[in-house]
Design brief:
Elements (H helix, E strand, L loop, with lengths): L1 H8 L1 H21 L12 E7 L5 H19 L3 E9 L2 E8 L5 H15 L8 E8 L5 E9 L4 H17 L4 E2 L4 E2 L3 E7 L1 H6 L4 H11 L7 E4 L2 E4 L16 E5 L2 E4 H4 E7 L4 E5 L2 E10 L5 H18 L4 E6 L2 H31 L2 H8 L1 H15 L6 H30 L4 H25 L10 H24 L2 H9 L1 H10 L12 H29 L1 H13 L20 E7 L6 H19 L4 E9 L4 H6 L9 E8 L6 H15 L4 E4 L4 H7 L6 E6 L3 H15 L5 E6 L5 E8 L1 H6 L4 H12 L9 E3 L6 E7 L8 H5 L2 E2 L9 E2 H4 E8 L2 E5 L2 E10 L4 H14 L7 E6 H31 L3 H7 L1 H15 L6 H30 L4 H11 L1 H20 L9 H29 L3 H10 L1
Helix pairs in contact: 1-2, 2-12, 3-4, 5-9, 10-11, 10-13, 10-35, 11-13, 11-16, 12-13, 12-15, 13-14, 13-15, 13-35, 14-15, 14-30, 14-33, 18-19, 18-34, 18-36, 19-36, 20-22, 30-31, 30-33, 31-33, 31-36, 32-33, 32-36, 33-34, 33-36, 34-36, 35-36
Length: about 1050
C-alpha cells in the first residue's frame, strides 16, 4: 500500500500535520457559536403595520388584504402569506421558497409597502420589515422593578436607557419593554369645558399641531456674522404648552389651559407585567441567527453591572428565564456522555486486545477525528450544538472501528511470523478496501438527510456532516497515524514475539490482576469462538432451517411497529411552564389583572412553593407591533395573557405539574379559558412560532361559516383521548358599540363623517395617529409623543360618549354633540382576524398529553373526514404535525434511497450483483432490532429514532462487508463456499464483536437519556443499539448462511476470473 509505505518512511510529516490540525481545530472550537440547535434557515420575512385605534377587521380589509394582493407581482419566491390583524396592529408573515434570497425579499417588501401607502387610510405609518427565524427565540428576560420610581419612569429607563445599552451586544435583539406605562405628554381634555366654549377635541389637536412646530428657522447673515436663528417652536417646559392658544371664540382667545390640562403622563395601558406579584416592566432579549446563545447571554450579563451603575437608585434588574442554564446543561450532558462513551470503549478494546499500547493507538483516532470534524464544521459555518455534539458522541464507538480492524489484522500478520514493516503494510493492504468500503457505506446512508426539506433538514444535516467527516478522518488516521504508532510503540513487543512467538512481552513474575483478567477473558473467548464455529457450521449445513428461523425472528417485529407511537421530537423537561389565560372578550385589563392574581395564587398552591422559582405574568398586547411580530404569544387583547412559571433546579417532572394544572384550574375558574404554550427553547424552535403542536386551519370565503366549522371541530376533538387545550385561537365575537352617523343630517349642520371620526378618535384613543406631534425632553434628548385625549375616567359611560361635542368645519361653535348626528347600537366584532393567502382562516389549536402525536393526529383526521363540510370550506392539519409527517416521509424515502445507494456502491466494489445482496441481508434484521428496542424501552418513534435507523443501515453493512470479503478471499484460495462462509465468520468474529461492542458501549450513555436535555438524542442511540445487536447477530450467522445459498456456481466464476 503506497500510502502506508510513505507514512512509515516519513512519520514526522504525519505528526506535524496532525499537530497543525489540532491547533486549527481547537481554535475553531473556541470561536464557534454554541447553541441548543443548529440554525433553521427557513426564509420568512415579517411586515408590521400600525394604525392606532383601527379595528382588527378594518386592519385586515383596508390594509393587509390590499397589500397582500400587490405582493403577487412585486415580490419573488413567495410560498405562502400568513396575516394576523389585531386592534391597531397587523402582522404579515411572508414565507419564501427554500433557497430564496431573503435580503432581496426584504428590499422588495419594503418597496412594495411604500408604493401602496397612498391607497391606504390617511396618516398610516409606513410598515416595518423584519427577518424572522425559527431559532430567533427569547433567551433571557430582565424584570425591571422599583419601590421608589413610578411605572412611567421605570418603563422609560427600560426603553431609552437600558434597551440601547443591551442592543450593542453582538447577536442580541431587544424589542420594546413589556408592561409598565409608556411615557407621553398628555393633553387631558375636559369635554364640558370644550362644549361650553364651542370647541371640540379635534380643535385642540389641530391647535397643538399648529403651535408645537418642529421646523428650522434657517440662518441670517448680518454684517460679518452668520447667525443661526433659534425660535421657540417647541417649549422646553411641558407646563408652557398649557398657554398655547386654541381658537378665538366670541372675541376671546381660548387657551389650552381653559379646556385641558397638559402634564407628563402615559399611554392608556394595554399591557401589564408582574414578577412574583410585583408590578414592573420586562425586557425580553432575543437571539438573532448565527450567534451563540451563550455568548449573547454572557454579553448581556456582563453589561448589567455597568448599566445598573448608571441607573437611579432603587431600580432592580432581575434576570429570569435564562435559557443558557438549560443550554449549558444539555451540552454538558452530551459531553459527559461522549466522555463516558470513550471510556467504556477504551475498556472494551483493552479487554479484547490485552495491550494498553494497542488500545492507545486505537483511541488516538477519537479526539483527532472529532477535532478534524470541528474544523470542517467551522469552515462550513455550522455551530456547536446538541445535534453536532450528539453526532460526535454517537460516533465515538464508530471512530475506533477502522483502527480496530487495521490493528487486529496487523497483529494477525505478526503472529504469522512476518517482519514488522511487512506485517504493517500487508495488514493494511488486506483490509484497506473493506474498511474504506464500510466507511463509505456508513457515510452514504446520510446522503438522503441532505435532501430533506424543512426543519428536519436543518436539524440533522449538521449532525450527519459531523459524523461523516469524523468517520472519514478516522479512516485516514487508520492508514496514516495507526501504522506509524504501531511501528514505534509495538517494536519491542514484535521483537520479543519473534523470539518466543508471543505478541506481548513475557509476563513478569508475580500476580498481575489485569493479566489474569485478560487471560481469563481470552480463554472464555476462545471457548466462545469454538462454540460459534460449531453453531455457524450447523446453520450453514442446515441453511433451510436457519433461514426459516431468521425469517420468523424478523417477522415477529412487524406486529410491534404499529404500537410504537410516533412523535416529531422527544419531549424535553426544561423545568418551565407557559400557561395562557383568557378571560371573557372585552374584559378590561384591570379586571384581567385581578383574575391573574387569583390564578397565580392557585398555581402556587397546586404546584407548591418548594417547586417554584419565579412566576411572571404578562397580560395584554404590548405597545409595539415589533414585539407582536417577533413573538409566538397567543395573546390577542387586554382580556388575556400568559403566566410563565420557572421551576427550581430540583423539581418534580414538569409534565406532572402541567397535568395537575390542566385538571384543577378549569374547575376552580370556570369563567376563564386555559391552555399551555411552548415554554422552553426546544419547543419554541420546533413549533416555529406556532402556539401549539396541533394547528387545524379552517378557511373559506364566508368567515361566519368557517368559524362555525372551527368551533365544531374544537368541540369534537376534545373527546379524543389525549387531546388537550383544544380551542379556537381567533376571537370573532367581542362586544362592540356601533356609531351610525346620519351623513345627511350632519351635512345640514356643516359636519362631515371625517369631522365625526376625528373627534371620536381623539376622544377615545388620542391624536397620536391622526395628529402626530412630539416634544423633546431637554434633559435626556428623548422625543416623546404629545397627544390629545380625554382621560379614560371621564369617558366611563355611554352618556359621556354620546354627549361628546363635534365641531362643524365652518363655524365658531359646535353645531351638535355626537348623539345629534348618529345612532348607537351594539354588535359583535373580531378583535383578532387571520388570513392564509388572503383567504380568512381560523386556527383550532390543541396539544397532546399522554399519547403520541401521530396517533392523535390520525384520530383528528378521522373526525375531520366524518364531518360533512361545505365544499367551499377547506380544512388542513398543520403545525408540528405537518412538519413531523413531512420529515417522516423524507426519512422513510431516504432509508430506501440509502439501501439503493449502498447496494450500488457494493456492486461497484464486488463487481457482482449477488455479493451485495448477501451483504444487505443484515439490514432487515437491523431494522427489526430498532423496532424491538423501541418497543421494549417504551420509546416512541421520532425523527431522531429514524436517524438512528438510517445509521443502522450503514453499520449493518460495514461488518457484513468484512465477512463477505474474507469469504471471497477464501474461495479465491480454493475453498468451497461452505468452508469459506464458516472460515470467514470464524476469522472475522473478533473484529466484528470488537467494533460492534465499541459502538454499543459508546452509545450506552446517550441511550440512558440522563441529564438536562438527554431526552433529545436518547431515541437515536437506542435505535442504533437495538439495530446493531440484531445486525451483528445476523452478520455472524445469517450472512454466512446466505453466502452458501446465493453463491451457487460462484466457484467456477472465481476460478475463471483467476485464470483470466
Amino acid at each position: 500500500m503506497t500510502l502506508v509505505m510513505y507514512v512509515l518512511r516519513r512519520p514526522y510529516t504525519v505528526i506535524a500535520g496532525l499537530i497543525l490540525i489540532c491547533i486549527l481545530g481547537v481554535g475553531a472550537a473556541l470561536r464557534m457559536p454554541v447553541d441548543i440547535f443548529p440554525e433553521i434557515n427557513i426564509p420568512v420575512v415579517s411586515v408590521v403595520w400600525t394604525y392606532s385605534g383601527l379595528s382588527a377587521i378594518d386592519m385586515q380589509n383596508r390594509i393587509l388584504t390590499f397589500h397582500e394582493r400587490q405582493l403577487a407581482s412585486l415580490v419573488d419566491d413567495i410560498s405562502r402569506i400568513e396575516a394576523t390583524s389585531y386592534n391597531g396592529v397587523g402582522v404579515e408573515k411572508v414565507f419564501l421558497h427554500e433557497g430564496a434570497d431573503v435580503s432581496r425579499a426584504v428590499s422588495q417588501l419594503a418597496s412594495s409597502a411604500l408604493t401602496v401607502l397612498k391607497y391606504m387610510p390617511r396618516n398610516i405609518t409606513p410598515p416595518l420589515v423584519l427577518r424572522y427565524g425559527a431559532t430567533d427565540v427569547p433567551i433571557i428576560q430582565l424584570g425591571l422593578s422599583s419601590n421608589s420610581l413610578p411605572d412611567t419612569k421605570l418603563t422609560d429607563l427600560g426603553e431609552n436607557t437600558i434597551r440601547p445599552d443591551l442592543a450593542v451586544v453582538h447577536g442580541a435583539q431587544v424589542p420594546y419593554p413589556y408592561g409598565g406605562k409608556r411615557r407621553v405628554i398628555m393633553v387631558d381634555l375636559d369635554l364640558q369645558a370644550l362644549e361650553a366654549r364651542g370647541l371640540s377635541p379635534s380643535d385642540v389637536a389641530s391647535a397643538i399641531q399648529q403651535q408645537n412646530v418642529i421646523l428650522p428657522a434657517g440662518d441670517v447673515k448680518i454684517g460679518s456674522k452668520d447667525y443661526t436663528l433659534a425660535m421657540n417652536n417647541s417649549p422646553d417646559v411641558i407646563a408652557s404648552i398649557n398657554d398655547f392658544p386654541v381658537k378665538e371664540v366670541a372675541g376671546r382667545i381660548v387657551f389650552i389651559h381653559d379646556v385641558a390640562h397638559v402634564h407628563d403622563g402615559y399611554r392608556i395601558q394595554t399591557n401589564s407585567v408582574a414578577v412574583d406579584g410585583q408590578p414592573g416592566a420586562l425586557m425580553m432579549v432575543r437571539k438573532t441567527g448565527g450567534v451563540s446563545t451563550l455568548a449573547v447571554i454572557d454579553g448581556i450579563k456582563s453589561g448589567l453591572p455597568e448599566i445598573k451603575r448608571l441607573l437611579p437608585q432603587g431600580v432592580n434588574i432581575l434576570p429570569i428565564f435564562d435559557q443558557s442554564v438549560f443550554v449549558k446543561a444539555s451540552l454538558n450532558s452530551v459531553l459527559i456522555g461522549g466522555t463516558m462513551a470513550a471510556g467504556l470503549t477504551a475498556l472494551m478494546i483493552l479487554l479484547f486486545l490485552g495491550n494498553w499500547r494497542l488500545t492507545l493507538i486505537i483511541l488516538a483516532a477519537i479526539p483527532l477525528s472529532i477535532i478534524t470534524a470541528v474544523l470542517v464544521l467551522y469552515v462550513s459555518g455550522e455551530t456547536l450544538n446538541t445535534m453536532t455534539l450528539g453526532g460526535f458522541a454517537l460516533a465515538v464507538g464508530i471512530l475506533v472501528d477502522n483502527g480496530t480492524v487495521v490493528i487486529e489484522n496487523i497483529e494477525r500478520r505478526v503472529k504469522l511470523g512476518e517482519q514488522l514493516t511487512e506485517a504493517i503494510v500487508t495488514g493494511c493492504s488486506e483490509v484497506g478496501v473493506p474498511t474504506m468500503l464500510s466507511t463509505l457505506c456508513i457515510c452514504i446512508v446520510f446522503v438522503p438527510v441532505f435532501l430533506l426539506q424543512g426543519t428536519a433538514k436543518y436539524l440533522f444535516s449538521p449532525m450527519s456532516l459531523s459524523v461523516c467527516v469524523a468517520l472519514i478522518a478516522s479512516l485516514a488516521l487508520s492508514f496514516t497515524l495507526v501504522p506509524v504508532l504501531f511501528k514505534y510503540l509495538m517494536r519491542s513487543s514484535v521483537e520479543e514475539h519473534q523470539q518466543d512467538r508471543q505478541i506481548a512481552p513475557t509476563p513478569r513474575q508475580g500476580f498481575n490482576p489485569f493479566s489474569a483478567i485478560h487471560h481469563g477473558f481470552e480463554a472464555s473467548f476462545n471457548r466462545f469462538r469454538e462454540a460459534y464455529r460449531n453453531s455457524v457450521a450447523f446453520c450453514v449445513a442446515h441453511f433451510g432451517v436457519a433461514s426459516a428461523f431468521f425469517i420468523v425472528l424478523m417477522g415477529c417485529s412487524l406486529p410491534l411497529f404499529p404500537h410504537l407511537g410516533r412523535d416529531f421530537f422527544p419531549e424535553v423537561d426544561a423545568g418551565q411552564m407557559r400557561l395562557h389565560v383568557r378571560a371573557p372578550p372585552a374584559t378590561r385589563i384591570e379586571d384581567t389583572q385581578r383574575y391573574f392574581t387569583k390564578v397565580e395564587s392557585t398555581i402556587r398552591q397546586i404546584v407548591g412553593e418548594d417547586q417554584i422559582d419565579v412566576i411572571l405574568d404578562n397580560i395584554g398586547l404590548p405597545v409595539s407591533g415589533i414585539n407582536i411580530a417577533l413573538s409566538d404569544s397567543a395573546t390577542v387583547g387586554p382580556m388575556d395573557g400568559e403566566i410563565l412559571i420557572s421551576l427550581k433546579k430540583k423539581h418534580s417532572p414538569t409534565p406532572a405539574h402541567v397535568a395537575d394544572l390542566r385538571r384543577e384550574l378549569p374547575r376552580r375558574f370556570p369563567q376563564l379559558q386555559f391552555f399551555f404554550q411552548p415554554a422552553d427553547i426546544v419547543d419554541q424552535v420546533l413549533n416555529f412560532g406556532r402556539p401549539a403542536a396541533i394547528d387545524i386551519r379552517v378557511s373559506g370565503p364566508d368567515s361566519d361559516a368557517a368559524y362555525a366549522v372551527a368551533g365544531k371541530i374544537a368541540e369534537d376533538i376534545k373527546h379524543i383521548p389525549g387531546i388537550v387545550d383544544s380551542h379556537v385561537f381567533q376571537v370573532p365575537d367581542a362586544p362592540a358599540l356601533t356609531i351610525d352617523v346620519n351623513r345627511a343630517l350632519a351635512e345640514e349642520l356643516g359636519i362631515t363623517e371625517d369631522d365625526v371620526v376625528r373627534n371620536v378618535l381623539v376622544t377615545t384613543n388620542s391624536s397620536g395617529q391622526t395628529f402626530p406631534n412630539f416634544w423633546v425632553d431637554p434633559k435626556n434628548g428623548v422625543s416623546y409623543a404629545l397627544v390629545v385625549q380625554v382621560p379614560t375616567y371621564r369617558v366611563n359611560s355611554t352618556q359621556d360618549l354620546w354627549t361628546m361635542p363635534v365641531t362643524a368645519r365652518t363655524g365658531t361653535k359646535p353645531n351638535a354633540v355626537l348623539m345629534n348626528v348618529a345612532k348607537f347600537g351594539r354588535a359583535k366584532v373580531p378583535i383578532v382576524a387571520s388570513q392564509l393567502n388572503i383567504r380568512p382562516v381560523f386556527d383550532v389549536n390543541a396539544d397532546v398529553e399522554g399519547r403520541d402525536l401521530a396517533s392523535a393526529a390520525k384520530e383528528i383526521d378521522n373526525v375531520l373526514a366524518a364531518d360533512r363540510l361545505d365544499p367551499t370550506i377547506t380544512v388542513t392539519l398543520s403545525g408540528q404535525v405537518e412538519t413531523m409527517l413531512e420529515s417522516y416521509d423524507g426519512l422513510f424515502s431516504g432509508m430506501a434511497l440509502a439501501v439503493v445507494l449502498v447496494y450500488l456502491i457494493l456492486v461497484i466494489n464486488f463487481q457482482s450483483w449477488i455479493d451485495p445482496l448477501i451483504v444487505l441481508t443484515a439490514i432487515p434484521f437491523a431494522l427489526s432490532g430498532v423496532i424491538w428496542i423501541l418497543y421494549l424501552t417504551g420509546t416512541h418513534l421520532s425523527v431522531p429514532a429514524l436517524m438512528g435507523s438510517l445509521m443502522c443501515i450503514g453499520l449493518a453493512t460495514a461488518n457484513s462487508i468484512l465477512v463477505v470479503t474474507f469469504a471471497n478471499q477464501c474461495m479465491a484460495a480454493g475453498d468451497d463456499k461452505m468452508t469459506a462462509a464458516i472460515v470467514a465468520g470464524f476469522t472475522r468474529l473478533r473484529p466484528v464483536l470488537m467494533t460492534a461492542g465499541a459502538m454499543i458501549l459508546g452509545m450506552m450513555p446517550m441511550a440512558l437519556g440522563v441529564g438536562e436535555g438527554g431526552e433529545q438524542n436518547a431515541p437515536l442511540a437506542r435505535a442504533v443499539i437495538g439495530g446493531l445487536l440484531f445486525a451483528t447477530f445476523a452478520t455472524l450467522i445469517f450472512v454466512p448462511v446466505m453466502y452458501r445459498i446465493l453463491r451457487r456456481g460462484s466457484e467456477a466464476r472465481l476460478s475463471s476470473a483467476e485464470s483470466a
